[in-house]
Amino acid sequence: MKQTIQGLMLASTLVLGGTALAQQAGKESKKGTAELRGFVVPTDEKALLERLHYTHQMEIKLGQLAQQNSNNPDVKAFGKQMVDEHTAADGKLMTMAQGLGLKLSDMPKPMNDVEKKVMAADKAIMEELQALKGEPFDSCYISGQVGDHDATLGKLMAGRQALTGNAQLTSLMDEMTQHVSQHRQQAYSVLGKLGQTMGVGGAGTGMQKGTESGTGGHMGGHMGTGSGTGGHMGTGTGGTTGTGQSGTGMQPKK
Length: 254
Prior knowledge:
The chain has about 250 residues and is mostly helical. The chain is built from eight helices and four strands. It has one domain (about 35-245): Ferritin, core subunit, four-helix bundle (Ferritin), CATH 1.20.1260.10. It has helices spanning about 1-15, 20-25, 45-70, 75-100, 115-130, 135-160, 165-200, 205-210, and strands at about 35, 40, 225, 235. A hairpin with a 2-residue loop joins strand 1 (about 35) and strand 2. Helix 3 packs antiparallel against helix 6, helix 4 runs antiparallel to helix 7 (about 165-200) and helix 6 (about 135-160) runs antiparallel to helix 7.
């Protein structure tokens, strides 16, 4: 329940708290990046858009994998939703980038060594999930999705504050925040069903976190990296969604 509240707080702060965000001075963590509540993102529009694009592409690939490797109708349906909605969102993003005269790379250049390691962890986790089938896949995939979406919300908050000068981009991030918040809650709901069915909740998360040396979320580099957040878009050093909190697998048993 604590994690659910945190996810909702992150989303509501961004969607409804525009004034409050404007009043919070996001500090420059280093040249070219901005930090908010432990979440760090690039301040360059192209770099930020590339991380959003990377997020969408990873979610699409994982969603496709869920439809192939899962036998659970809830997991398969969730995976299809991720494919459909992230494909549509990525299309909007690429159209906007084209309008700005920006050519986005599918693989962002890491901002630092931490992000480089987490992007490498993304690849390793993708390979791990490709080898899993049925229930082991379900618990690993869905538990990772809960933590990833928590972290993504934090990165969007940081990005929303860092790039206030581009109304089109901030609008896109607001829309993405709404979708990500919904996805996070849906993943949490599916994880709860898995816990009731298998009695293990997100048991697979332990394997994922172990392979990432505590970077958090099995898609750590999609939008973010860091010692405490994981996620998909930049780097982080803590934030409100800390490592391991995203998927211990025990929450559905409350």
